[in-house]
Structures are given as structure tokens and as C-alpha cells.
Design goal:
SH3 type barrels; nine-stranded antiparallel beta sheet; globular; alpha/beta
């Protein structure tokens, strides 16, 4: 371990600060680097300058630890790879996850390549996850595992990493809990010890998503329709195919009750309750589906409305990603895994099935608010095996 060089992504938060401290204690040659990924002040919700504050905190931490520090401006690449993608996906009525993309496209691609130019052996982040490896027929296979703190596990956000990226990654705080991390920061007198966790978009900071989206996606008045829970479309069919079980319900706009108006279907997502501003129903209205082409929102009363649930989801073959290539399924093969379709969701038992054009995930019990564009990730115990973008 001695003299191995590692570049730590210092975000100005407590997690990356402690990651840098631990690596230095372990004998690594540590360099701190702050990534400036956004500087468009028109979308911030206050006069604060979050990236500047974070950059200063990162610099103070580096100085305290006695490690070199530099900041790099990746805002051009971030706009091209993340922001433009987000706008495009929301425009299509899909729900992207910018944090997953940020890790794949920025931290473990551009940032990693920058670190390699500094002759680094590794890059490190403050993610709550773990890396392991084993030898298979003479080559090392890397494993991405959940963090030990169940409440903070962030392996889902790294679900698109590949073996090459994992080989260069270190996650120093993955075996710690958040309280333990804060205690270490306090003991070492780090300025970030009591700093609150960022709630903003990945590296953009204190921004409300609707405010951010309205920079390019303009408001557009449309109708909100209510679907009755007893609608014939929900009649169960035990003989349904995987394709049918994973498909969105087909609604006819002329058959349903008009309950109000919205400002643009592209601002809303499946399962959303707040934001519609429509009351007067016995139970709250939940969004069942959006149609951005016709600018319609379909809703249903109550969180147990059948339109919120599906038994399966589909992922197009080109969107399937295996962290563990050696476990990749061939056409016609299937395997049992635990799956989550959003961050913090408890793992659900499911069968992953590889067909000719799609990979299907069939759940033991129907899942709520499966949103196209989100990532589904499948695990074996505490190891993340693969992931993919949920298709229409």
C-alpha cells in the first residue's frame, strides 16, 4: 500500500473529507481534487454560491490534512453528458437518475482519466459502499458491495460501473456508519464534521428540480384525468406474457373523468402525489402515468390504486449492464436476484430473465411506481450484480 497514489474527489462534505483522512492514515500518497460541475446561477434557489462554498471547504480540509489540492472545471462535460440527457429524458416523459449518470460519466470516467494523468493508482470517493475481489482463472474479478450502514448504502448510485472502473476505485468509508464518520471528522477537527448532507442534484447543489427543468422545458397547460380503480384494464390475466406484464397500462383519454389542469406533463413522474394541487377527492390523487405527446396526466385515488402496480419490468438489451460480466445471462436463461428500482427502496425478490430483445425482471410481488428511465439494479445478497434502464 505504501506510496500508492490516490486522488480523492473532495466534494466539500464530511464523507469525502474522512475518506481522504483515512487514506492518508493508511499510507497512501493522497491528492484532493474538487470537481466544479455547474456554475449556472440562474437555477439556484438563493443568492448562495454552493459550489464556491463547497470548494472552499474542500480546500480547508486538504490544508488541514496536509495534502495537495486542486479544483477542476468539468461543467462543459457535465452539461453535455448529464444536464442535456436529463432535459431530453424528462421531455420524453421518462424519469432519469442524474446521480447514477454522474458517477458513470463524470466521477469514474472524466475524473478518473484526469487522476490517471497525475499518475494515480486509484481514485477514491466518499460513497457508502465496499469493493472486494477474487481470483477467477488467473484474473481478478471485482465486486461492488453494499455499504455496512444500511441507512446510507449508496451502491445503487454506482450500479453502472464496470470492472475497469472498479479496479481503480477505493471506497474508504464503506465499512463505517454515518455517525462513525462524523465522529472521526470531529476528532480530527475537520471543518465539515457537522456540515449537513447535500440534498441537491449531483454536484449542482441547492436547486429545486422543477425550477431547474423550467430552464428549458417550458410550462404547457394540460388536463389531469382520473382513472377508476375498477377500470377493466386492471382485470388480472394469469396467462399474461412477460411483455404484457411489464407494459404500461393503455388508457383512453375520452373514457375518464377530467379533474383539473397541470402545467406540463414533463414536470411529473409516476407515483408522485404532491405538486398537482388538486383536492376534493376522498383519497389523495397519485400519478399513474404521463403522456408527454398529448400532454395528459392520468391519476388514481389512493396509494393502493391498481394502476400504480406492475408485476414485471423490461430493459432493452442495449441498456443492460453487468458489473459482474461472468454472471451475464444468455438468451433463455434466468436467475433469482434481489432487485431495487430506486435508491433506498428495500430489496425485493425477483427473477431476472434474458429473452431475445429484452431482459425482464419479474417480481414475487407487484411493485409500486415503476418509472421508465429509472435504473433497476439486481443484487445477490450484498453484492450488486448488474443494472439497466427501465424501458417504456
Amino acid at each position: 500500500m505504501k506510496n500508492k497514489r490516490v486522488v480523492v474527489g473532495l466534494s466539500g462534505g464530511v464523507d469525502s473529507s474522512v475518506a481522504a483522512y483515512l487514506l492518508k492514515e493508511q499510507g497512501y500518497d493522497v491528492i484532493g481534487m474538487f470537481m466544479k460541475n455547474w456554475h449556472d446561477d440562474t437555477v439556484t434557489i438563493s443568492d448562495e454560491c454552493p459550489w464556491l462554498e463547497d470548494s472552499n471547504d474542500a480546500m480547508i480540509v486538504a490544508d488541514k490534512l496536509g495534502i495537495p489540492f486542486q479544483a477542476i472545471d468539468l461543467s462543459k462535460e457535465y452539461k453535455e453528458r448529464i444536464v442535456n440527457y436529463m432535459f431530453s429524458e424528462y421531455q420524453k416523459g421518462r424519469t432519469p437518475n442524474p446521480d447514477v449518470l454522474c458517477n458513470r460519466e463524470i466521477k469514474f470516467d472524466i475524473f478518473l482519466k484526469t487522476a490517471m494523468m497525475l499518475k494515480a493508482d486509484y481514485v477514491a470517493t466518499g460513497h457508502y459502499c465496499r469493493k472486494d475481489s477474487f481470483n477467477q482463472e488467473g484474473s481478478e474479478v471485482f465486486q461492488l458491495k453494499a455499504g455496512m450502514d444500511n441507512n446510507k448504502d449508496q451502491s445503487y448510485f454506482l450500479c453502472q460501473l464496470n470492472q475497469q472502473q472498479l479496479s481503480k476505485a477505493l471506497f474508504p468509508i464503506g465499512a463505517l456508519t454515518k455517525p462513525e464518520v462524523r465522529a472521526i471528522a470531529k476528532e480530527q477537527g475537520l471543518i465539515t464534521a457537522e456540515k449537513k448532507d447535500s440534498q441537491g442534484l449531483c454536484f449542482i447543489g441547492k436547486v429545486r428540480l422543477p425550477d431547474f427543468l423550467q430552464q428549458q422545458l417550458k410550462p404547457k397547460k394540460g388536463r389531469v384525468l382520473e382513472i377508476d380503480a375498477k377500470h377493466p384494464v386492471y382485470n388480472s390475466n394469469s396467462a399474461a406474457t412477460l411483455e404484457e406484464m411489464s407494459a404500461s397500462f393503455q388508457y383512453n383519454a375520452t373514457e375518464h373523468k377530467d379533474v383539473g389542469e397541470h402545467n406540463g406533463a414533463h414536470f411529473f413522474t409516476v407515483g408522485q402525489r404532491k405538486g398537482l394541487g388538486i383536492g376534493g377527492t376522498p383519497e389523495p390523487l397519485f400519478i399513474l402515468q404521463t403522456d408527454t405527446e398529448k400532454n395528459l396526466i392520468y391519476t388514481g385515488q389512493g396509494e393502493n390504486h391498481p394502476g400504480l402496480y406492475r408485476e414485471a419490468l423490461a430493459i432493452e438489451n442495449e441498456e443492460v449492464h453487468w458489473v459482474r460480466n461472468d454472471l451475464r445471462l444468455n438468451t433463455g436463461e434466468k436467475a433469482s436476484y434481489q432487485v431495487r428500482i430506486r435508491y433506498r427502496q428495500p430489496l425485493e425478490n425477483a427473477t431476472v430473465i434474458q429473452e431475445k430483445d429484452h431482459l425482464y425482471i419479474q417480481f414475487e410481488r407487484p411493485q409500486k411506481a415503476i418509472a421508465k428511465g429509472q435504473f433497476a439494479a439486481w443484487y445477490k445478497n450484498d453484492e450488486l450484480i448488474g443494472s439497466g434502464v427501465i424501458s417504456d
